[in-house]
Amino acid sequence: MEILETLYEELVGFFGITQAWEILKSGNYEVLRTYEGITSFIIPIIPLLVFLELILGLAYKKPQTRVYKVNFLIYVFNRFVGRFIAIAVVTLCIGWFQPLALFQTSPTWYWFIYAYIIWEFGHFIYHYLGHKVRLFWCLHSTHHAPEDMNLSVTYAHFFLEAPYADTIRTTICILAGVQPEMLFVIMFIDGTYGAFIHVGENVMKKANFGFLGKYILTPSHHRVHHAKNPLYMDTNFCNLLNIWDRAFGTYQEEKEYEKIRYGITREMDSGNFMDVYFGEFVALGKDIWNAPGIKNKLMYVIMPPGWNHTGAHMTSKVVRSEYFNTQKAKDKAAA
Questions:
Q1: SS3 call for 212
Q2: For residue 83, which phi and psi values (nearest 5 degrees)?
Q3: 16: closest CA among 155, 140, 120, 144?
Q4: Are 225 and 237 a contacting pair, CB within 8 Å?
Q5: How far apart are CA 234 and CA 137, in angstroms?
Q6: Rounded Cα–Cα distance for residues 86 and 52 (Å)
Q7: Which residues form the Fatty acid hydroxylase domain (predicted)?
Q8: Which of 102, 129, 236, 275 could anchor a disulfide with 279, C-beta 3.0 to 4.6 Å?
Q9: Phi, psi angle pair for 160, to nearest 5°
Q10: Which residues touch 147 (CB under 8 Å, ≥6 apart)?
Q11: Would you say 64 and 148 are in contact if contact means Cβ atoms under 8 Å apart?
Q12: Could you give the CA distance from residue 296 to residue 287 in angstroms, rounded to a whole number?
């Protein structure tokens, strides 16, 4: 019975319906005027959409079972291993860095816009480093391993990635004067929308949102980010506002002539939990072991994925450059 009760509690916890169910049972809808009341009905949306995606996948005979299986195992593993680490990191960063802020914001709409832009900058920095520093890529690669896109991918993260990400994002925001209360609201919006942009084609086919796609990052943009095509590699690092991708030249729209191929460039078994979760650490360990000298060993840790001590680099920058040079040569030949 205890096992069944635990499974029931975990299922309810996954769908996040406890608070919403209590409100419905009590009939006290006044609570919907509060932050807690509103979020209690927003939190279940993504898990329910995950379930809907799976049902539609079965109906369309596109169940993507390998992706769902591994992502479910990752969710369960992270649930028990890294449950409270990110919360502790955020709390510590607020305590350490708030006294160092040059100024403090106030709870007004214009400061909220400022705070969100700063948050997106912090997100861009963390995300960019996650692709450009090999050690951080080991943390982030689990999220890019699935070879299909659906909402379950939002649960595919190495358990230490959230603490690493929140250390950078929280520190930048707090030092820039963002109030903790405002930060928590932004984190909720960011987490909810950040999950939604992983929606698969079973639910939303094009997902470029028309003219809105010029100002916000859409599921189409994020599908591009998860692609391993040379045209798409290491682009669209933002989460909701694509302002920093445009500012730093990493913005890329989905092209009809370039069908997205999901996954990472390393050969791997995307249906194997151990390979998805620890494979990049194993690959990094092998490179460090085989590298001559301390300097080369260190370079493998801090340089981008694809860097090689022999000079035969296959970083995303090199791969993209070769791709564009090939395209230019083809266009010149055609002309």
A1: helix
A2: -65, -45
A3: 155
A4: yes
A5: 12
A6: 29
A7: 113-250
A8: 275
A9: -90, -5
A10: 66, 67, 262, 263, 270
A11: yes
A12: 9
Phi and psi torsions of 145, nearest 5°: -65, -35
Q: CA angle, corner 269, sides to 265 and 272, nearest 5?
A: 135
pLDDT in tens, the chain (335 residues): 555 555 555 555 555 556 655 655 566 656 656 656 566 656 565 555 555 655 655 555 555 655 666 766 676 667 656 556 777 889 899 999 999 998 999 989 999 999 999 999 999 999 999 999 999 999 999 999 999 898 888 888 998 998 999 999 999 999 999 999 999 999 999 999 999 999 988 788 889 998 899 899 999 999 999 999 999 999 999 999 999 999 999 999 999 999 999 999 999 888 888 999 999 999 999 999 999 999 999 999 999 999 999 999 999 999 999 999 988 888 778 76
Residue corresponding to tokens 């959230």: 162
C-alpha to C-alpha distance for 224 and 232, rounded to whole angstroms: 6
Dist. CA 205–CA 77, nearest whole Å: 31
Whole-number Å distance between alpha carbons of 108 and 113:
9
| Residue 27 DSSP one-character state | T
Going from the C-alpha of 45 to that of each of 103, 189, 243, the distances in angstroms are 36, 13, 27
Taking CA 296 as the corner, what is the angle to CA 284 and CA 322, rounded to the nearest 5 degrees?
A: 75
> DSSP H helical segments within the chain, as ranges?
2-15, 18-26, 35-42, 45-59, 65-81, 85-97, 109-132, 134-144, 161-175, 180-196, 219-225, 243-248, 273-290, 293-302, 316-334
